[in-house]
Amino acid sequence: MFSISLGDDGALLCPLEPRHADELLAHIDRGRDHIGRYTPLPDVVVDAPSARAYLQAYADKRAADGGEIFGIRSGGVLVGGVMFRLFDAATGNCEIGCWLEPGAAGRGLVTRAVRLLIDWAFAERGMHRVEWIAASGNEASVATARRLGMTRDGVLRQSGLHRGVRHDMEIWSVLAHEWDGASGTARVGREG
Hints:
Layout: E1 4-5, E2 12-15, H1 21-35, H2 41-44, H3 48-63, E3 68-74, E4 77-88, E5 93-100, H4 109-123, E6 129-135, H5 139-147, E7 151-162, E8 165-175, E9 179-180, E10 185-186
Parallel strand pairs: 5-6
Antiparallel strand pairs: 1-2, 2-3, 3-4, 4-5, 6-8, 7-8, 9-10
Helix pairs in contact: 1-3
């Protein structure tokens, strides 16, 4: 299995496959409350069979060129992940998502991993637009979009329903011509 360095701290970005189901479940169990504040992942991954099914769904997406999932490892332990939730090569649009357990927060792991995904989407796959969708209350996710230099396209008021609560959802994006792969940020980023 390949892995890509995320920097001098030894963190790695690696593919997640169905064979990693037990590891994914253990990781989700360590951060279930934190991860579940804004993402349904802990509600979907509740046992080994559901973890395997979740990873198999992404393996199927990858085979159909419609999405992909990667783990973030620190000290050899799975601590989070990033994914192409949606990937539409025909239209040149994709959406990146993420999650992280609390012990790994605040180290820039997601930002570094997402930079790699954006670089790959633009440089290798010729994508036109990368989207990032976050609940307005998810300050860490919104801050990641800002750090990446993305533009806030708008807010979909109360469009996100999670655990019975409606959330305003912010849509952030970066276009291929705005992205500076050398710096890993957009040349122009603004809030709209």
